[in-house]
């Protein structure tokens, strides 16, 4: 099939590459010209395992990129993957999706064959009905040949390609069976259960899934707080808990909390939505509260071990929201760094993939060094906080001898090295 994908982010690019791999002809559209150029010259604009190989295979052949929407009319299916951030209060910002819908509608105003518009971006329940469909129909002059589908994405950064190709389920929310059948055809070859439902239910499935994952993590963190006082290892406890098939072992890793571009924002948006509906989502608010407290926990533990943090040199290993990615949006390292700076500590940070993104995000600050290796960050440090589970940290050992005092606290469990303690273990 000929497919256009709007938005070349983690979801859009993963979708484009996998669809090309499945044999579709894909046009990737993004307003960011640097990304467009990178894609057309076979370079990945994002750090994600497997992207480089896939770009080599498909760029210029089954995958082409452009900033121009006019090629949409030559495709049969258009998949929207633009970002849908939310404010700190949880109010979703749907301006990008609205703008994309206007461009799509305008370019489909004279199209004759059936065109399927798929919403893969995460949007609050009712958005396709109340915003996306009316905006597209208004700009395309009520072209009757357009069908709509909500098809939320569940991939995880760091294993995006694997997750896209092997989803636990494919959720298809449509009003019209013809649209749903066409989307099933797009996924032909992927073996996983397909859930056919209406658009608003599909939108809610995504919000509820992320809220549930966030709940599991905050639950583990709360159990972790209790385990730490009792001198127990929460990982051993949760391994015993997770083997119960009603619970499952996933998303039970205790640590400094969940971050990234999805769980925190989608949880905030669901709370915001519930409150606007007159509901008080007590559980969801507690999940968020527990998460926000985790960065304080690691600072408190650090203070217990080394006393006043003023003018202490703290090495931070791992600043992405998790290992194996360069994503720093809503990373739990950010509140930790901010609090250390507020207490006049000096920070020497290192991350194998995310340093550049963090520089853009936080900027240049006198007390904050961006180091080019773990050894450089650890040199003369009074303490070390490990905040992301970057796989290469598992091999660190002698580098810790460079520290002034060997106080090592893990916020994510990754070190093999023995002289350390965990936030909960
Ligand atoms: P992202 O921020 O990485 O990328 C979004 C891309 O859209 C950017 O390249 C941006 O330039 C482009 N864009 C913005 N407005 C545009 C427009 N009008 N026309 C064309 N391009 C435009 O976003 P992401 O992380 O891929 O997330 C996309 C959506 O998928 C969000 O709704 C997110 O919640 C959801 N989602 C993300 C993940 C994830 O792990 N990142 C997982 C599942 C679902």
**Overall tally of domains:** 2
> Architecture of the largest domain in CATH?
3-Layer(aba) Sandwich
SSE sequence, one letter per element? EHEHHEEHEHEHEHEHHHHEHEHEHEEE
Low-confidence stretches: none
The CATH topology of the largest domain corresponds to Rossmann fold
Question: Largest sheet, order of strands side by side?
Answer: 3-2-1-4-5-6-7-8
Structural class based on helices, strands and sheet pairing: alpha/beta
| Name of the CATH homologous superfamily of the largest domain | NAD(P)-binding Rossmann-like Domain
**Sheet with the most strands?**
8 strands, mixed
Q: What's the CATH class of the largest domain, please?
A: Alpha Beta
